[in-house]
TrEMBL record:
Pfam families in UniProt: EamA (PF00892)
Protein name as catalogued: EamA family transporter
Membrane topology: Multi-pass membrane protein
Any one GO cellular component localisation term in the record: membrane
Major site of localization recorded for this protein: membrane
EamA domain mapped to chain residues: 13-147, 162-293
Origin superkingdom: Bacteria
Transmembrane regions: 12-33, 39-62, 74-92, 128-149, 161-179, 191-210, 222-243, 279-299
Originating organism: Celeribacter ethanolicus
Origin organism lineage: Bacteria, Pseudomonadati, Pseudomonadota, Alphaproteobacteria, Rhodobacterales
InterPro entries noted in UniProt: AA-Vitamin_Transporters, EamA_dom, EmrE-like
Subcellular location: Membrane
Keywords of the record: Membrane, Transmembrane, Transmembrane helix
Similarity remark: Belongs to the EamA transporter family.
Amino acid sequence: MSPLPNITPASWIMVCILGFVWGSTFMVIEIALTGISPFWLATFRLAIAAIIMAAFWGVDGFKMGTDPENPPHPVALIWAGAISSGVPFLLLNWGQQYVTSGFAGTSMAAVPLVVLPMAHFMVAGERLTIRSVIGVALGFLGVFLLVGQDALNSSGADLEFWGRMACLMVALCYALNSITIRRLPPINSTALTTIMMASGALITLPFSLMAEGLPGLPPLKAFVALVFLGVVSTAAMNQLRVLVIRSAGPTFMTLVNYQVPVWSVVLGSKLLGEPLPPSLIIALTLILGGVAISQWPVVKRLFARR
């Protein structure tokens, strides 16, 4: 029997750090894009993270932690790398050329809403309830508003609509990856993250070369943003995520879902001067409200007196 989750003040600090750092990632991507092309930004970020994660994995003795009789298939691991980092990082970086960081972060709030109907059809024992259907419907009303013509008129770019769609496709990738991870045989989390980051970098590399040619030397500000994305946002926060899940449990980890879009909107507005149209705030409220309703048993357990 696994030990009960131990939620301590340190757990709250860690989950708040995760929410803040991952919420700030969209702002940092905007900064990095001022000097690094979008596809190379994805490749470099993943390569940096893969190298650091490989070091963590080495400290762990390169353990796979799998059932010898049921190891994960290599194709499944490559697929997990593609939809967890390779494809979404390409889409997100490309899309953020045409939308604000606040929009991109708000789009990610839709991930839990997409997971629920996917899990209903793809995961045994996962079924939609009336409550979760209401929550998903409310959340997708927010998504509809988010992509609507007046949802965000800040950039004025000709490709803004497609930038919005690219960000929402990132949310779809993350949701599909969540289902994929559930269906994999048991595997060491550090090993899995390292393999996904490495395969993601290998997937993005040919796209970078074909679409953008050889990279140039980035300016200092963009380079610092790139290092932050690879070292802090990707490698360090993945290790912190594992620590939170192992100590406080995966249910507690869901609190990050509510923080990331809020921080992305606040930081984008305060530090990058991005506008906050009312429709964006309403969309964010509807999406987070839908997530809360659909995940109400989870939220209730977190704050119930133990």
